[in-house]
Amino acid sequence: MDPRATQVTCPTCKKTGDWLATPWGPFCSKRCKLIDLGKWLGGEHVISEPLRAEHLEKYAGPPTNGHSDPSKAGDN
Ligand SMILES: [Zn+2]
């Protein structure tokens, strides 16, 4: 085995080899790279984003329902 070769594991098929020397690195082949890309697009790799307040706001709706805005009331 060539000691200069960097042994990496293909994320798709787990085959070990000097994949960084290939245009598809760290994948062993174009096919494996496309398979991994397909996983991303297919939602298999889901980046879990922390839930923030602004995500809830669009579902919560306005706190007052049917009442006029207190900041505008009594202005006539
Ligand atoms: Zn592979």
Structure in words:
With 76 residues, the protein is mostly helical. The protein has a domain at 1-47: Erythroid Transcription Factor GATA-1, Chain A, CATH 3.30.50. 28% of the residues lie in helices and 5% in strands. It is built from 2 helices and 2 strands, in the order E-E-H-H. The protein has helices at residues 30-42, 53-60; strands spanning 8-9, 16-17. A two-stranded antiparallel ribbon has the order 1-2. The longest helix is centred in the middle third of the chain and has 13 residues, at 30-42. The structure holds zinc ion. The site of zinc ion has 8 residues, from loops.
What's the arrangement of secondary structure elements?
Elements: E1 8-9, E2 16-17, H1 30-42, H2 53-60
Spatial order of the strands forming the largest sheet: 1-2
Distance between the termini: 87 Å
Q: CATH homologous superfamily name of one domain?
A: Erythroid Transcription Factor GATA-1, subunit A
What is the element string, with H for helices and E for strands?
A: EEHH
SS class: mainly alpha
Rg to the nearest angstrom? 26 Å
